[in-house]
Amino acid sequence: MTSFWEKFKDFLVTLLGNGMGRIGLILIGLIIIAALMAPFLRTVNPQKAGRAEDILLAPSAQHWLGTDDLGRDVWSQVIFGSRISLAIGLVTALLTVVSGTLIGLIAGFYGGMVEEVLVRIVDFFMMLPVLPLMIILAAVLGPSLWNIIFVISVISWPTTARVVRSQVLSVKERPYVEASRCIGAGNVKLMLGEILPNVVPLMFAQAVLMITEAIYAEAVLSFLGLGDVTRISWGYMLHFAFESGVMASSPWWIGPPIGCIIMVIVGFSLLGTAISDVLNPGYRELKGV
Predict the structure, then answer these.
(1) What gap in Å lies between CA 251 and CA 241, rounded to an integer?
(2) Less crowded by CB within 10 Å, the N or C end of the chain?
(3) Whether the Cβ atoms of residue 118 and residue 205 lie closer than 8 Å to each other
(4) CA 38 – CA 43 distance, rounded (Å)
(5) How many angstroms separate the CA atoms of 114 and 110, rounded?
(6) pTM of this prediction?
(7) Alpha-carbon gap, residue 239 to 255, rounded angstroms
(8) Do 174 and 195 touch, CB atoms closer than 8 A?
């Protein structure tokens, strides 16, 4: 246990020493704090419509980011919208990485016909046009938070499966795996006890990048009106602004959600890149740490 925490602490210190990692953590930290502290950040019910005189108000002391075409507070929508975007990103990344890792692990370990079949399935999904497939699935399944998570997971898992399979093909040939096999370790023991621990760092890096893709995909689907209309998200804020026909004259309405989407995507992209760099065996030698 002590060894694990020492390794984790060492990894965290190294990550914080990476410039991209620090910036990514700061950007993500700000969004997470906003999501957790939403009720205490001078917010109101983001779905509550205002009076006629509250419609499309510019930013003021009462409404920090103005109001939309229904008189709803834009600041409150942005803050509470972060919860939906982060929830979709985290849950989708978990499902994608777990399913993709399982497929990649089995394909890389067993090889032969098993690998051939699984690789062909992965290739089939990777050949499909992503955006049209998401639109069709979301339209057929209907507007629901869990349906959006399912749709994004379906089109995202093949990337993780392919990356993990490549890593497994390399790890399974290493001497300690062969040694475990020689002393009688079964396939399950080899996969879960010897190979999987060496794939976990790669899974972690993939999960961070998957969060970015999931948040972007949710924003696109919601902008097209295929998200969960009962929940305010950054994508749906842009959808409502577009449908209102006042996007050009209400920059305070569209600017904040666009800025938040960019901020989260940049933050997780920087963090994912930094994690990949830090986990590289030659990183410490290169940086002299």
Answers:
(1) 10
(2) N
(3) no
(4) 7
(5) 7
(6) 0.85
(7) 13
(8) no
Q: How far is 198 from 170, CA to CA, in rounded Å?
A: 10
Tens of pLDDT along 99-119? 999 999 999 999 889 999 999
Residue 94 contacts residue 156 (beta carbons within 8 Å) = no
How buried is residue 225: exposed, middle or buried, by Cβ count under 10 Å (0-12/13-18/19+)?
middle
CA 139 to chain centre: 22
Nearest one of 111, 110, 108 to 169, comparing CA atoms: 108
Structural tokens at position 31? 């969004």
Please calculate the CA angle 29-30-35 and round it to the nearest 5 degrees: 95
Locate 208 and state its tokens.
């961070």
153 neighbors 96 (Cβ within 8 angstroms): yes
Assigned token pair, 280: 């590289």
Residue with token string 């920087």? 270
Question: Which of 32-46, 176-190, 210-224 is predicted least confidently?
Answer: 176-190
